[in-house]
């Protein structure tokens, strides 16, 4: 199956007029979080804060885009890390994909990058937990960061 997909992909890439089909194909192969990661059904900022308070748990919010290679690397990294997946049980875990992630940016700002990861206290306050790159405060490239 992988060999067939590779052949189809190479044919599509070779044909310039089918460039949009290539992007659709790549998007279809994009990584997603594993089904055993316990994501909440809410993504709205107010709803996430309310759920964190109701469950007396901190929240972690993953903001991703399906076309983003770094986002897919983060997802794959988490999917393969049983320790991190186990810790997710202690959080209200949220995956804000696509346009739903825009509401997580600071008011009046555009972070301009994904993936972004935000941490909230059980009271709903956004915590100042930063990734390893000072230029991109909420960028975490893998589950190991």
From TrEMBL:
Q: Which UniProt keywords apply?
A: Signal
Q: What is this protein called?
A: Thioredoxin domain-containing protein
> Would the keyword Membrane turn up in this protein's UniProt record?
no
PROSITE patterns listed in its UniProt record: THIOREDOXIN_1
Query: What's the source species for this entry?
Result: Oxyrrhis marina (Dinoflagellate)
Keyword Flavoprotein in record = no
**InterPro entries given in the database record:** AGR/TXD (IPR051099), Thioredoxin-like_sf (IPR036249), Thioredoxin_CS (IPR017937)
């Amino acid at each position: 199956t992988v060999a067939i997909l590779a052949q189809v992909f190479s044919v599509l890439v070779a044909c310039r007029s089918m460039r949009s089909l290539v992007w659709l194909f790549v998007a279809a192969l994009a990584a997603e979080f594993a089904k055993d990661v316990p994501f909440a059904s809410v993504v709205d900022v107010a709803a996430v804060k309310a759920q964190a308070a109701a469950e007396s748990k901190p929240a972690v919010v993953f903001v991703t885009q399906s076309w983003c290679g770094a986002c897919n690397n983060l997802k794959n990294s988490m999917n393969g890390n049983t320790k991190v997946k186990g810790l997710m049980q202690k959080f209200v875990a949220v995956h804000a994909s696509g346009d739903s992630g825009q509401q997580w940016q600071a008011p009046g700002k555009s972070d301009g990058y994904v993936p972004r990861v935000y941490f909230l206290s059980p009271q709903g306050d956004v915590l100042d937990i930063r990734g390893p790159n000072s230029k991109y405060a909420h960028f975490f490239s893998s589950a190991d960061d």
